Every structure is written in C-alpha cells, then in structure tokens.
Amino acid sequence: MVSSREYGDDFRELLQLPGFSVQDELLAIPAVTHTVDSDVPDPVAHVRIVDSALPVDQVFDYEIPRHMAEVRVGCRVVVQFGSRKVDALIIARDSQTAMGRSLRPLLRVVSYMPVLTPRILQLCETIAAQYCGPIADCLRLAVPQRHARTEKEFVAHEAQMASFDLPSSDDGIYADYECGAQFLDSILQRDSSYATMHLLASHSYADAVIPAITATLSTQRTVLVLAPTPYIADRMRTELQRRFKAHTIAYLTAQDEPALRYENFLMALSGTADILVGTRSAAWAPMDNLGLAIILDDLHSAYRERRSPYPHARSVLRALCELSGASMLSVSYWPSPESLAEAQAGGALYLHGHTNTIRANIPQVLAAQDFAREEDMHGRMPDSVFSVVREALQAGPVLISVPQAGYLSVLVCARCSQLARCGECGGTLEIPDPSSRIRCVRCGSKYDQFSCPRCANHTTRALRVGSSRTAEEIGRAFPGITINVFNPSDPSFSVDATPKIVVATTGSEDRIEGTFAASILLDAHYLLRSIRSEAESYFLRSLAKTASVTARRANGGVFLIVGNVDATIMHSFAHWDARQWWGSGAQERALLSLPPYAVWVAVSGDEDSVLGFTSAFRSIVLANRAQAGSDNGSAAIGSLPGSLPHRLTDEGGLAYGNTVDGSNEDLETLLLGGIHDLIPGVSILGPHTAYDGSYELYFRCDPKDMPQMSENIRKARALTRVSNKNHKVRIVVNPSL
C-alpha cells in the first residue's frame, strides 16, 4: 500500500493527474535488462504465480540454484513471494532479467516433470484475456493437483503409443447431412475446419463422432471428446473402446479420484492416449498433435465453469483448436444460439439433415392444442393424451415427461390463486407424497392446515404436478399396465419392447436406454416460463432430447406436446429446422444487443467494491482515449474531462473518486438504474440487486471492442485489489441473461 506520508506532497500532486494509476506508474520505470552471471546455464526462471489470492498477474524472475539446474520449463516450483511461500510454474528460462541485480532463488522443485506445455500456456493467456480474468486462475483449471505416487509409477511404466489398424473408413450417417462429406474431407486433408451438426433424432452421439474420429486417427492425429456429464462421458468412452479396441482411450473428469485424474492427465500430456473423453475440465487437456475436438450438447449448463474466470468449455475448445490447427465439431440435437450464429456468419459449416431424410428420422410431432375440444382446452390431460397412449401401448412402451419431480410440487390457494408460502421463511409449499402433510421446500416446516393470508381460505390446489402424481393419475386411466416412475438420481433406466408407461422428468432422457413407441410432454408451457433469454433454446433442446428416445415416424413414432406453445416454435421443431427458428431469434437478439451480437460483462460484489471497480475502469478508458488523442496530435492528457476518479486517502489507500466528467457528483449518484454511457464505447446497465443480494451491474460493448475492454477490466481489477484488499468483484463474461 502506498502512503502519501511516505512520498510527500509531490506524490499527492501526481495522483491528481488524469489517467494516473498507483500500480501502473510506480511500475512504469523503464526496465533495464541485464545478464545474470552464473555457472548454471540459463539461470533465470521466469515464473507465473499459481495463487489467485494474490493481486498479481505478471511474470516474476527467480534464480535457479546449482542443485536445481535440471529443472525445465513447465515444471512446478515453490518460490518466496513477500513473506509467503507460494506455488508457481516455470514458463521460460534464460539468462536475462529486468528485476534488479539480485534475484531470489527458487525454494524447491515440486516435480521435475514438465506439466505445462507452451500451447496450454497460450490457451490460458487467451482465455484469461477473453474472460477478463487472471492467468493464474486459468492455470489452476488447466493443471490438476499433483499426485506424487501416481507420477512416479507413470514415469516408471510409461507406455508407448501402440501401432494399430484403423476400422474401415465409412462416412456413416454423414451421407444424410448437408456438408457432411465436406467436413470429413477437410479432416482427411488436415485442414482446420469448424462445424455444427444438428443431429437427427434417430441418430446417436456415437453415430456422429465415430466417422469423424476414424478420419482423424487415419491422419495420425489425436482426438478430444467433451461431454456435459460424467454419465454421458462414460457411455461415450465405453462405445469408443468397443469400436477402437487397439487404441488407448483416456478418461478425464473433475469427479475422478485425484490419482485417477492425474494419471489420465499424464496420459494426455505424454502422448500415450490418442483419444481423450471427459467433461468440461478435459477441455484444458494437453493433447499432443490434436486433430479434432468434439463437444456434445454445447447448450448444456454444465459447460460453464464454476470457478474464475468462469469460461465456457465451448470457448476453451475453440481457442485450443485455433492454437493447435485442429478441427472442431459441435454435435447436439438442437444447436445453441452461439453455434447457429457462427454458422450463419460463415464461421462454421452447418451439418443438417437433407430434406428427404429429416421426415424419416424424427417422430411425428403433434400439438395437443390442435386437437383439444372446447371442454378440455384448459385441461392438463386432454383426450388426445389417452388416445396416443392407448394406441402406442399396442406397439411398445410409452414415455410421459413432466417438468418436475415429486407429487404436488407447487401449491396455490384454491380460492384466490395466491401462491402458498411458508409463514416461517417465505418458501413455497408442496405435498411430497400422498401420505405426507403440506411442507415448506426451503425450511421443511410442516402444516396440518393451510391458511391463505389474502382470503383466509384453507384449501389448496396444485399449480404444478410432479411425476409421482402424474403416474398416479395415469395409472387410474390404464389399470393393469405397468407404471414406472424414473428417479433422476438413478444411474440409468433401460426399456424393452414390453408395453409399459414410464413417467420421467424432462432432462432424464440421457439416462434412459431404449426407444419408446410414443412420447408425451405434459405442461410444456411451464418450460417456457422463464425470465432467461435462453428459455426458447432450452425448451427446444428439451423437446429434441425427448424426440431422440422416440421411435421414428416411419416406425409409427409419435411425440405429443401438451401445453400452450407458440405455433412458430412448434413449426420449427416439427420440421427439425433450427435455422428457421434462429432467423427471427437472431433479429430480436441483435435489436436488443444480446449475445452473440454484443458482449455482456456482469460485475457483482458489495456496493463499495463495484463502484470502486467501475470508477477505476472508467478512468483507465478515459486515460487511454486521451493518450491516443495525444499520440495523434489532436489532444493532450491535460484536456481529459474530469480527473481520475481515484484519490489518495489519509490512511494511504485508494478510493473511488468524486469527479465524473468534471462534475462534483459521486459516481454512485449517476448510477440510478437503466442504461448509462458514462464510459465511452461501453454501456452500463444497472445497478440492481442480484438474486444472492449482491450489488450488480452490466457492461455491454460491441464484440470487436472486447479485446481492449478486457484489458482495461483486468487493469481496473488489479488496481482496486491493490488499493483495497477488501475490494473483491466477481466478473462473468456473457452470463446467463
């Protein structure tokens, strides 16, 4: 921390200069590079600190002692940083330094095995810049914790890549898709190509990836396959092991035991594995000679990292492919808006079914609202539901999908429709099973009798009916038919051709093995009742996943959707036409400046931290603009409107300032909600109180301006953390809106 008492009045005057930053200016003394004399070759280790708690994001130099002379670039070491001993990774080694005549020595070499490759370091730098985060946070995601015993055993028994015979080359299902053959040819030609595959309902993920993997392996390159959940990843690994028996297939998920995870990481690092299957953490795997990266169901929420800098696995894979010269394939039953936008802009091939193959490879899609009579227009189960179930049971099993599990999951007053809430904590009330009393879903309080605070009524009705209650109602209509309620926590569920009814929650399709003669989605309109901008995308994805476990139209498969769903959405889904749906969606997103046509950055934390960060960010942007004008001879630094909104406090710290555009108003008084243009080229939306009670606002800019905006955000965060260690903000690029 800098103190005015230590540096005097001259330093206080410097702080009044526009664009002046304590951290930047004190470190802006021209560096003098010199050679370190030592009998150790290349005695200077340039390291990155792997500790996100430290407010530093730069390279530091340390001297390599004689007994550590064999340490290589990419190795883990321990260094002295201030009064702390911290972990670090060596990113370069030479004899030059600009950090003074005397360097501190490395304290310890954790392992002499290099675990950070130059390409993964580049990937960390790219993602850190793209998501406005410290490189240290990306390094923690890319390099797992060391497991010493596993490393020693791996080094002692390191396997070599075996020679193998590839399965016969076959285009498989790619003949059914526009641009399918073109994408496979680009892989064989070792061209870097990007593709989005809108998978037909009757095709599986394995059908889509096996021809592409075969083509990649034939060019002697490796493959990385990303799945949203461990269950899907494990099924994919099993299928690939059956198909590519002579290949070494590694498996990497964050849920693995540390020893197993580190072993599979080493297999990827050493080149032992030529196929790697995993969840989002596998996107950082250091695959050698990567030729193809595949991501399955990229709209799945599990792909968003829960730790800083909160990158999406799709972005990590895309950056990795660009650095590796590899191809990338996104496979899903309904593509994400990002994938569709990229294909629309010409940045990726769009693999979709030929017109004559779509009809034959999806079930017949029906909307119950088109057949409902006047008396059951508002019924949860119109006559069409029972007609479809009755007819389909003659051919095989039937799936009934509902949005929620449980019995009566949401209750309302039977008289005034007021949402039934707990008197203790305000949580919603439910009836978990037929024999239970009303209880609160939040605190668990139980009630013998409900009393509506609005009308004093004591009776309730269900607003949302769960899977258990649905099974009860269906069972009464079809006596003698087996009813199975699928629990989402069950590992899997297999169905055969035996007539039965399976009731499951929407989203469970990945864990159901088998094909249903018919599927019915009840309460479809509840899936669209969301405040999120992605509501339609997730709804269509849910429909497509259900269709994937339903027999195709040619085999009599029927998919009935019950609920008030917009006709344009139904038309796009019934024709399996994502581009038609995206046409109107793209225009709406562009009009509202939503991703991918604009970049949104959510900044949240306590009020003082967010305001301090915003003030620092604004000052940096204005200083850069003034500097650019000065360089062009059109302006001078002194002409910048308003002084830097950072000032030195009497205690020697930094605080966000009181001047904005030359006025004496606090920044806080100018942020009263709505959209502001207090920062040139950046719109500020908010502030507002987030769901977790934090103070939050959004920055929004044009995608082409994001690189500069990201650099300024990172500088502002570093400045606020140096000025006040209690100032902490959470920054998420393109959050769920």
Describe the protein:
By secondary structure, this protein is an alpha/beta fold. Helix content is 31%, strand content 21%. It contains 22 helices and 34 strands. The strands form 9 sheets. Strands 10-11-9-12-13-8-14 form a 7-stranded parallel β-sheet, with helices on both faces. It has a 6-stranded parallel β-sheet with strand order 15-27-26-16-24-22, with helices on both faces. A 5-stranded antiparallel β-sheet has the order 3-2-5-4-7, with no helix packed on it. α11 (313-324) links the parallel β12 and β13 (327-332). α12 packs across α19 (578-592). The longest helix is centred in the C-terminal third of the chain and has 25 residues, at 607-631. It is globular and about 90 Å long. The protein starts with a helix and ends with a strand. Residues 1-27 and 633-665 have low confidence and may be disordered.
Give a quick precis of the structure.
The chain is α/β, with parallel strands linked by helices.
Key descriptive features of the protein:
737 residues; alpha/beta; 6-stranded parallel β-sheet; 22 helices; 21% strand
Overall, the morphology is globular
Strand content range? 15-25%
Overall pLDDT level = 85
Rg computed from alpha carbons, rounded to a whole number of angstroms:
30 Å
Instruction: Detail the poorly predicted runs.
Output: 1-27, 633-665
| Ends apart, CA distance between termini | 37 Å
Biggest beta sheet summary: 7 strands, parallel
Please work out how many helical segments DSSP would assign.
Answer: 22
List the strand order in the largest sheet: 10-11-9-12-13-8-14
Structural class: alpha/beta
Q: Based on DSSP secondary structure assignment, what is the total number of beta strands? A: 34
Helix content: 25-40%
